[in-house]
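Workshop exercise sheet. Pairs work together: one partner reads the sequence aloud, the other fills in the structure field after running the prediction. Swap roles for the next sheet.
Pair: D.N. / O.F.
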Amino acid sequence: MPKETVIWLTIGVYIVFMLVIGLISTRSSKSITDFTVGGRNAGAWVSALSYGTAYFSAVMFIGYAGSTGWKYGIWGVLPGIGNAIFGSLLAWLVLARRTRETTRRHKIKSMPQFFAKRFESTAMKRFAVAVIFIFLLPYSASVYKGLTSVCAVLLGIDERVCMVVIAVAAALIVILGGYVATLKADFVQGIVMLFGVSALIVAIVRCRQVGGLQTGLEAITAKTADLNLGVKDHIGLWATVLMTSFGTWGLPQMIHKYYGIRDDHEVRRGTVISTLFALVIAGGGYFIGSLSRLFFSELPSPPAGGAGHPDYLIPNMLAQADLPTILVGVVLVLLISASVSTLASITITASSTLTMDFIQDRLFPGMDKRRAALVTKALCAAFVLLSYLIANSNTPILDMMSYSWGILSGSFLAPYLISLYWKGINRAGAWAGMLGGFFVALPPVVCKLFLPSVSLPFFGAVKDLGPHFACLAMVLSVALCLVFSRIASAGRWKGSAPNPAFYEEAAPTEEAAPAEATVPAEAVAETVKG
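Structure field:
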């Protein structure tokens, strides 16, 4: 059987499986509650694999793994290790239990609701909604680009055609089944990713370009030494490590995975599962990328021609590694699986948050749940279309993702994290941290769109420094939250009033009972007014 036929059959089986899940789930996604919440009872495996599949997509495998491996050689494995330790293990230890307890006690279903409840500020809620919807778009677009580059190289499909196919498939899955479909699919897709990446690591290590683990490590270590990495390079590397690891702490589509974990026992189990998953997926993906200089002496060009580009390193590595045909099909399926999971989380998060926390809350407070679900589905379709248009821009995967993560994490990480642990943070401090982080992370986006020639001494073009500004934004935001909260309290500013009721225990409610643990998609589980 021809190679292309085997690959297409493998992908076809996966697509049919996903469509069946979407169609079956259509029956249970008639209201906005059904569309965005689903089963209301999440165990450790479901929560952890849902977290992992939302975390890692073709962006990591194709964009970051290839770029960091090419720039830093064997040191390119550090982001993968950081993602497992800081982005999974530490994130779950610090955030999961507190988030689960707080959001359940206050019936919070989204990050904008969290800020509105804690800081008693409708304006802060609206600001969060706008930032989430607008700046999740480039992240979504980067997922499309990562997936289309590998399909273009391995299957010879025109990239624009590939983007259209992926956009339509993602829209159908989300619109048909909503969170029910993605929740059911995440577990299976997580297993596919685990086995696929494990098999891929073995195949790459054994290919002729690498020549085995010991030989390959010796060769790439020598090539890394030839790179003569300096201070500027190591700053860039650690900026990437910290942004891709701690950045998840402020991403709404990641935080919502903690909302409906069944109990503290499941939190502990989920911490272990999530960490091991990240170690295999991220560690393996970045390890493969770190070997890229054993395959190429210069950056490979896109299939359509043009200058060499880091987004085509991993696809061309797979094409040249003489992988078994069935494994190529499995690799494509795992990349599609990872990307569809991420796209589903992003799309539902952005669209349902806009529906509940702005359209229902502000424009049409009398909208019923069924109509709200229809509005959310329409917004999902619009979000997918906008992502497709942005993906057609000439922007590297790494840049688009760093712009999105930088602004979202710069805005939300500090006020959210500090609110979980410190009663002293007030509205003035939260606004200072939120706005400060937002504006500090914004320059790379502005320079990319309007001022591409602007540079910084020593570091280079600002538009290429997304990870640097993202890290600076997160650190500065924490400092601003703490300092301005103290100043506001001392000066008795209007926004300095404490909110002790937020931290008080409340009597259990029917919704808060363990049997009704929610599994939200950073969205509503019910119509909430006010």
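Discussion prompt: The longest strand covers residues 455-456. What would you look at next?
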